[in-house]
Amino acid sequence: MSKSGVIFRQEPPLNLALQDLHIKQRWPTFRRVSNAKDPTWRGVLQPTEVSGQYTVVVTYRLGSIPKVRVESPKLAPGTPHLYPDGSLCLYYPGEWSWHGRLIIAETIIPWAAHWLFYYELWLDTGKWHGPEAPHDGAKRAI
Amino acid sequence: MHTLGTHFTKLLENIQPPPHRLKKAQKIPARVRDFLAEHKEFKTMPPHSRLVGSYAQHLSVGDVKDVDILVRVDGDPEANDPPAREVLRGLKAALDDLPEYLGYHGESEFDINRNRRSVHVRFNEEDFHLDVVPCIAPQGFEAPIYVPDWGFKKWIKSHPLGVVTLIQELEDEHPGKFRNVTKLLKHFRNTHMVYMRPKSYWLVAMSIEAVKDGAVDTSEPLAVVFDQLLNHLYTKYSPIYQRTDGATPHIKDPMLGHDVSWNWSRNDFEAFLRRLEEGKRWTGEALKQDDKDEAIKYWRKVFGDEFPEDVDEYASALAATHWPGVAHASSRGVILSGAVEGVKSTPVLPTRYYGDE
User: Fold this and answer.
1) Inter-chain contact B354–A28, Cβ cutoff 8 Å?
2) Is the CATH number of domain B19-158 3.30.460.90?
3) Inter-chain contact B335–A48, Cβ cutoff 8 Å?
4) Minimum Cα–Cα distance from A51: chain B residue
5) B298, B291 in Cβ contact below 8 A?
6) Interface list for A 83-142 with B (CB within 8 A)
7) For B295, which residue in chain A has the nearest alpha carbon?
8) How far is A37 from chain B (nearest CA, A)?
9) Contact B355 A140 (CB under 8 A)
10) Domain coordinates of chain A in residue numbers?
C-alpha cells in the first residue's frame, strides 16, 4: 500500500511467510499445516461463548483467492452462502475482490468467524440474519 | 442434533441477576470498609474488606440477594485469639448500625441455623442483603484465611480468594464454558429444588472437579457440555446413592481439599440424585431430537420457563448489534459487538455474504 493508502495492484503479493506471521499474531489456534503447492492453515473458531469449536481450514496459493472450509463439525444440509465446492462465501465478488496485498488474518479469517456466527443463528431460526448480496440467479465461482 | 446456541445465550441472559444488584455488589465492600474503619469497638485491619462468594466468582444466577463480604480482623487463629464466638458477637453488634450508615433501614442478625460463620445484614426496602464474614488473614486475602465457626468455637481455614482465582483460570482455559456450565448447574438446581437444595459452593466444587478431571469436553457446544456434566455427576454419585448405610458424598474443597459437604443429609443427597437422574434423561432426549421444537420442549423441562421457546426476535437483535463493519472477532473467533477493553480482537470489515448452495 502506498503512503496515500492507495493500493497499487502491480505491487508483488505478500509472501506466505508474512501471511503466516499475521495469522499467528492474531489467531493463536491457527497453524500452517502444509508447505506444498497449496499452503494451508488449520485453526479453531468459536463464534459465540456457548458455541462448540469449529475446525476451519484456509487454503491459499499465491496469485489465487483464499478458500475457507469448515472441516468439523460437518455443516448442516442446506446451509446457505456456500460455493458449490463447499467453501464459505465470505464476500460478494461484485463489490469486493481479493488481491495479494491483502492480509488473510485481517479479512478472510474474521469473516469466517463472522460467517459462523450467522450460521448458528440460521441453525436456530432458519433465517440468515446477516448481510446478503442479491442473487442474480447465476452462481459465481471466485 | 440441535444444540440451540441462540437459546442458550438467551437463557444465560435470563438467569443473570438484575444489573443494578451486580453494581451494588461491586460497590458495597468499599462502603462497609469505610463504616468499619470508623467503628470504635469493632476493629478491622487493612485492607479491611473484600467481596467474595458468587458475585466475586461471577457465578451468580437468578435472584441471588446475598452479597458476601470478608472483613479482616487481627488475631491468632491457632490460639483462638480473639475467640471465634466473641468476634461473631462483636461483628453482629457493630453491624447493627450499618443499614443506617448506608442510608437504608434494616438490621443485622446472626442465625446459627442459617449460617454459622457470618453476620447477615438485611435492608428492609432493598432487594439485596449482606453476609459479612469476619476473618483472620495472616498473609492477606489472597492466601488462606481463617473464619470463625460458631458451632466448632474455633477458627477454620478457608481460601475463598483462591477459589475466585481458580475459577478465572478455568474460564481462561475453557473460555465460555466453565462459568456458563456452572451457572446452568445452579439454575438447574434452582428450577427443580425449592427445599433440600445442595449449597451453591458444593455445586461449584463439583463443576470445578469435573472440568479439571476432563469429564466434560469443553470444545463442544454448551448444551452438550451440560449434558456431559449431569451424566458425569450422576455416574459419580450413584454408587453412593445405591448404598444402604446412609452415606453421602465427600465433596472436596477445590483449594484446601477438606470435605465441604460434611453436613449433607442423606435425604437431601437422595433428592439431588433423583433430580440429576431426571435431568440427564431430559438432556439426553433433547440432544437426540431431530425436531427443533421437540428439543426445546425437553430443554424447558430441564431449565423451566427461562429457556426461550422462540428466539427469532432475539436473533434479529443479535445480528443487528454484531453487523460487519461494527463487530470485532476475538482471537478465538468469538464475535463481539465492538472492541472490548483488554480483549485482543480484529475488526470485521464490512461484507455481504453471497453464494446460496
Assistant:
1) no
2) yes
3) yes
4) B221
5) no
6) 83-84, 89-96, 105-107, 109-118, 120-121, 123-125, 127-133, 135, 139-140
7) A124
8) 27
9) yes
10) 16-125
Q: What is the pLDDT of residues A4-58, one digit of tens each?
A: 445 555 678 888 999 999 999 999 999 999 876 779 999 999 999 999 999 999 9
Would the CB atoms of A121 and B331 count as touching at under 8 Å? Answer: no
Tell me the three cell numbers of residue A24. 499467528
Which residues are CB-neighbours of B221 under 8 A, at least 6 positions away? A50, A51, A52, B3, B5, B8
Report residue A50 as a C-alpha cell. 456457548
* Residue A102 CA: distances (Å) to CA of A3, A12, A65, B214, B325: 16, 11, 11, 40, 17
Note the pLDDT tens digit of each residue in B92-148.
999 988 988 888 887 777 765 566 889 988 887 777 788 999 999 999 999 999 999
Cα nearest neighbour of A118 on chain B: B319
ipTM over 0.90: no
Residues of chain A contacting B5 with CB distance shorter than 8 Å = 48, 50-51, 120, 123-124
Domain ranges of chain B: 19-158, 163-306, 312-346
Question: Which ranges constitute the DSSP H helices of chain B?
Answer: 5-14, 19-38, 53-57, 84-95, 98-101, 160-173, 178-192, 200-212, 222-242, 266-288, 292-303, 312-321
